[in-house]
Amino acid sequence: MAYKFLDIVSTPAVRAAQEANGARKMWETFEQDRAFDRFTANEAAFIAARDSFFLATVSQSGWPYVQHRGGPQGFLKLLDDQTLAFADFRGNRQYISLGNAADDDRVSLILMDYPQRARLKILARMQARDLAVDPDLAARLALPGYKAKIERAFVLRLETFDWNCAQHITPRYTAPEIETAVAPLRSQLAALEAENRALRAQLAPNSHENRT
Ligand SMILES: Cc1cc2nc3c(=O)[nH]c(=O)nc-3n(C[C@H](O)[C@H](O)[C@H](O)COP(=O)(O)O)c2cc1C
Questions:
Q1: What is the per-residue pLDDT for 126?
Q2: Predicted confidence (pLDDT) per residue in 70-89, tens digit
Q3: 54 and 13 within one domain
Q4: How many domains does the structure of the chain reveal?
Q5: For position 206, what pLDDT does the model report?
Q6: Domain check: are 14 and 97 in the same one?
Q7: Are residues 54 and 13 both part of a single domain?
Q8: Residues 98 and 123 in one domain
Q9: Whose CA is nearest to atom 15 of ligand 1?
Q10: How far apart are CA 120 and CA 5, in angstroms?
Q11: pTM of the predicted protein model
């Protein structure tokens, strides 16, 4: 059965490591179909909800290079079921991912959903695009109101993806998520404080009388 992600990353060294750890047979006889070479509605929803991801590129020296990419929720767009794209914001002007991808277009992404404890790994081929000559793409990647200078687009052609299990993911929440969760508590607290003030006001004359 197809397991494209594992087929791609199972180099001889990886296979030897699996063999040495008694796991080779398990993958050789793997029965599930995990071609995972087209995004489904499930991945589309997951990607649309992300406000960041980690992007690994391959440098000419052989060193892997990982960078964090962040933006407004949904800034990583699905152009079709095999194509992703995102706006490359002006940063520290080192252009490491840009340079790496120009030499070797293979990239690896990991997308995290901390509250749901889910993660999606993606292998793709990434190209930089000049948005000045591609107004359609510029319109699709535009982020009105977001404070960033878009220098170019990165377009990523999917090779394959894979889902990871929830293990060892600590749930974490963004400030807006926390705000939503505590909003009912805040109103309940305000109501209790108001009630408390009213009760104190009712008690005040009695306690004054009690003292005299
Ligand atoms: C003023 C400024 C300084 C930054 N300094 C750093 C830094 O020291 N290290 C870093 O990883 N990213 C830094 N960033 C963010 C990166 O520039 C940004 O994530 C960019 O996309 C990285 O691209 P690259 O890692 O492919 O070169 C900085 C951004 C700005 C605007």
A1: 98
A2: 999 999 999 999 999 999 99
A3: no
A4: 3
A5: 64
A6: no
A7: no
A8: yes
A9: 91
A10: 12
A11: 0.90
Whether the predicted pLDDT of 184 surpasses 80: yes
Indicate if 68 and 149 belong to the same structural domain: yes
Do both 81 and 125 map to the same domain? yes
**Nearest alpha-carbon partner for 71 in 91, 89, 92:** 89
From the CA of 96, how far away is ligand 1's center (Å)? 10
How far, in Å, from the CA of 171 to the mean position of ligand 1? 26
Give the containing element (helix H, strand E) for 204.
Answer: helix 175-211
Å from CA of 94 to ligand 1 middle? 7
Q: What is the CATH number of the domain that holds 96?
A: 2.30.110.10
Q: How far is CA 182 from CA 13, 118, 166, 191, in A?
A: 49, 23, 25, 14
Domain limits for position 15? 1-34
Note the pLDDT tens digit of each residue in 105-148: 999 999 999 999 999 999 999 999 999 999 999 999 999 999 99
Q: How far apart are CA 123 and CA 7, in angstroms?
A: 12
| Whether 106 and 64 share a structural domain | yes
Looking at the fold, whether 160 and 68 belong to one and the same domain comes out as yes
The protein residue whose alpha carbon is closest to atom 16 in ligand 1 is 91
User: Is pLDDT above 70 for 207?
Assistant: no
- In this predicted structure, the answer to whether residue 211 has a pLDDT above a threshold of 70 is no
In this predicted model, which residue has the larger pLDDT, 210 or 126?
A: 126
**Do residues 71 and 87 lie in contact, with contact meaning Cβ atoms separated by under 8 Å?**
yes
